[in-house]
């Protein structure tokens, strides 16, 4: 593919999107899980992203439809070979303490992200930057060799390993947010505590009660502060969807970010237009610990995958129409075309179950030696429904399942530490590209909860990302995906739909494929 020099300029048009009749107000959001930090380099979940994207801003940010627009950078150019991006920062941008945001703050943030001592889980998302992976793996210790340079206070140059079609989108992710070097160096790990933290986004945090809520107010140093229609936000931690719906109906929440699916039909009739169910670039799946018996046996993994009747999960178990997943990359992902599928996708379900029984028998399991396993999921009514249903689908195989649930933070911590036999997981795209899904199965990646490892797969993913031709890149990615599916690396179950409930008084909420809705575009109309 050829790369033309491009220049993107900020436009005042986005400010006019908020020209609605509304008064300033506080927005109350049911946010789900409990954030583990306000440090953007310590996050990993959508409920953390909702907060981080309000209080920080990268070089590039999102418009109401989640398309990239200039953020802290007013413009950028791309070299003809597609490898060097030069960003010009806006005039007068400041941290919430009034100190200027400089190109050096971005250099500092990227170096800290990739410093192996900091063990940032998502560091790999920025491995497209020159020498990023080698620095993160300790192969290069001179951080000045990272391809992120401050030409001067207002000019940042980023050099990539290879031309990367999704790079601008990746800069919207919280791993690319700047950090206030002057505060981090002065306060150390305490820099994120309320009273110390300074941010550069539309809002700043004023209170954080772990297990309860995070509260923000307008950042009066933000360049677009005069256009903000919401005074601040209270993000509530609450994983009980039934309780959340009751609080929404009582007027305590303006937005719910999930809801109990068995209430969907009721909501359509009784809360018309308020339940938003939209196709979503995300996958729901189960992992199996491929490092431990019996799940290190491909036959066991494939048997459990084949015995799941995916066609009933969306319409009957959840009731919100999620589509069955037989691929690892969701259909419709950019720069890809049709994904690869499991070879048995179109086999009648009864035949799948019979084949699954044969595979388990070959692996040594049967009536006299049943497969016993623990299935873990994070506390949520919908996750429980799916887990109960799948355990019953496995019962005819002679599989005995113990269900085990914990709060979200504990669940994912235990998954990352390998304390799982079978575990529920979900992946919401950080950027619209197959690499973001396929990267989850690369050896050593912290989000590879099942610890499946295949050298050929790793090689194919790396080879694809070195391609400049999008067609060739997609073909190689598809080979990698097929390899993972043939080996039953994990069990894809369904492609998500986003499920929000939005009060009629909230204006500017636009459904989009990545379910990102920044507060700066919203207003409240009584």
UniProtKB/TrEMBL annotation:
What does the record give under GO molecular function? Answer: peptide transmembrane transporter activity
User: Is Signal given among the entry's keywords?
Assistant: yes
Question: Which segments does the entry list as coiled coil?
Answer: none
One of the record's GO cellular component terms? ATP-binding cassette (ABC) transporter complex
Domain Solute-binding protein family residue range list = 68-446
PROSITE patterns reported for this sequence: SBP_BACTERIAL_5
Q: Which protein, by its recorded name, is this?
A: Oligopeptide ABC transporter, substrate-binding protein
Give the organism, scientific name: Rhizobium favelukesii
Tell me the name of the encoding gene.
oppA
């Amino acid at each position: 593919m050829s790369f033309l020099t491009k220049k993107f300029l900020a436009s005042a048009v986005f400010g006019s999107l908020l020209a609605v009749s509304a008064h300033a107000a506080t927005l109350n959001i049911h946010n789900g899980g409990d954030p583990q930090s306000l440090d953007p380099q310590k996050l990993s979940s959508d409920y953390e992203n909702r907060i981080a994207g309000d209080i920080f801003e990268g070089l590039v940010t999102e418009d109401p439809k989640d398309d990239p627009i200039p953020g802290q950078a007013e413009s950028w150019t791309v070299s003809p070979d597609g490898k060097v991006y030069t960003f010009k920062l806006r005039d007068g941008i400041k941290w919430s303490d009034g100190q200027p945001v400089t190109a050096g703050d971005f250099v500092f943030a990227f170096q800290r992200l990739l410093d192996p001592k900091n063990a940032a889980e998502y560091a790999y998302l920025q491995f497209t930057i020159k020498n990023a992976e080698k620095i993160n793996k300790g192969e290069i210790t001179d951080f000045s060799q990272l391809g992120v340079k401050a030409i001067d206070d207002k000019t940042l140059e980023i050099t990539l390993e290879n031309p990367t079609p999704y790079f601008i989108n990746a800069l919207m992710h919280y791993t690319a947010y700047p950090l206030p070097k002057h505060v981090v160096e002065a306060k150390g790990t305490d820099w994120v505590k309320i009273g110390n933290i300074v941010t550069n986004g539309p809002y700043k945090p004023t209170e954080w009660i772990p297990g309860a809520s995070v509260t923000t107010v307008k950042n009066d140093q933000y360049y677009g502060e005069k256009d903000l229609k919401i005074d601040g936000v209270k993000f509530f931690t609450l994983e009980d969807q039934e309780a959340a719906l009751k609080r929404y109906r009582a007027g305590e929440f303006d937005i719910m970010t999930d809801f109990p699916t068995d209430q969907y039909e009721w909501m359509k009739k009784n809360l018309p237009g308020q339940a938003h169910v939209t196709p979503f670039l995300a996958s729901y799946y189960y992992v199996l610990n491929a490092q431990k018996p019996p799940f290190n046996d491909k036959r066991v993994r494939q048997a459990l995958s084949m015995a799941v009747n995916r066609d009933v999960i969306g319409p009957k178990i959840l009731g919100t129409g999620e589509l069955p997943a037989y691929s690892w990359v969701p259909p419709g992902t950019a720069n890809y075309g049709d994904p690869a599928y499991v070879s048995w996708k179109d086999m009648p379900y009864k035949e799948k179950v019979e084949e699954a029984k044969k595979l388990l028998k070959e692996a040594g399991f049967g009536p006299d030696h049943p497969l016993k396993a623990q299935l873990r999921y994070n506390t949520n009514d919908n996750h429980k429904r799916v887990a109960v249903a799948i355990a019953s689908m496995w019962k005819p195989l002679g599989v005995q399942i113990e269900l085990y649930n914990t709060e979200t933070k504990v669940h994912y911590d235990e998954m990352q530490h390998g304390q799982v036999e079978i575990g529920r997981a979900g992946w919401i795209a950080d950027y619209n590209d197959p690499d973001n899904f396929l990267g989850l199965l690369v050896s050593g990646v912290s989000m590879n909860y099942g610890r499946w490892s295949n050298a050929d797969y790793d090689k194919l993913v790396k080879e694809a990302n070195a391609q400049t031709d999008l067609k060739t890149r997609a073909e190689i990615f598809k080979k990698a995906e097929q390899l993972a599916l043939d080996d039953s690396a994990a069990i894809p179950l369904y492609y998500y739909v986003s499920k929000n409930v939005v009060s009629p008084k909230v204006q500017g909420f636009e459904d989009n494929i990545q379910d990102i809705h920044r507060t700066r575009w919203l207003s409240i109309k009584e």
